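User: Quick sanity check before I run a bigger batch. Here is a single chain. Can you write out its predicted 3D structure?
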Amino acid sequence: MRTSRPARVGQYTALLAYLVFLAFPFLWLVSTAFKPPRELGSLHPTWIPHDPTLANFRQAFDEQPLLHAALNSLLAALAAAVVAVLIATPMAYVVARRRTRLAKAVTGWVVVSQAFPFVLLIIPLFLVLKNLRLINSVPGLVLVYVVCALPFALWMLAGYVRAVPPELEEAAAVDGAGRVRTLVSVTAPLLAPGIVATGLFAFITAWNEFFFALVLLKTPEKQTLPVVLTHFIGAEGVADLGPLAAAAFLATLPSLVVFAVIQRRITGGMLTGAVKS
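Assistant: Done. Predicted structure follows.
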């Protein structure tokens, strides 16, 4: 069916409004990061700073250990992404290929588990980490991130596994390859786009995570970047807008870069899986 001209205009208008709605916070953040103090306190704020400055960035690095916190976030996010992918890949293969009640139950539990708010999980996770003596440690935070990333990683990779023709695995079995050999040598290379997309998604989630890091990490030297950003807010709730915006802008850049990569991977994988031979 052909869409009428007024309908297309309405669709594009709605899409443009949605894009503006999404872009406004980031554009305002960038504008604030480069504004001098007198423009930040102006009663008539402008989009483009009249006198752009880098003083907010210098002040942000002087006041808080942003590089060290960014390193903690990077280590936690990378470790969580790698471990989650290594665990989820064989699990996704079993769930996608085994049409059993157990596989269906696992898939159903994955979907249901996403409805649980993090507030319900923090107390049992805290008790488990306390017994393991992993409170206030980056490895303990990585363990929590892996637990949180596994359900979505499993669901996502299972879709990629289903897109791989079973005939390829049957041919490998005829040649004498076992299940593990087939997964490593035949299926895994074909899952490369899905594995990369899943790992990048887990990385973004861990990089931006705030709640668990705030509760589990108490020592300033071990805190991640999202937690350190809260230090720009005073005890009375007054925020130092310039340095806060500058630090938040720098913290957002890795997520934007990774998302630019992951969206192409996801789109390519979806198009590949949409066509059956």
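Confidence is low (pLDDT under 50) at residues 269-277.

User: Great, the batch can go ahead then.
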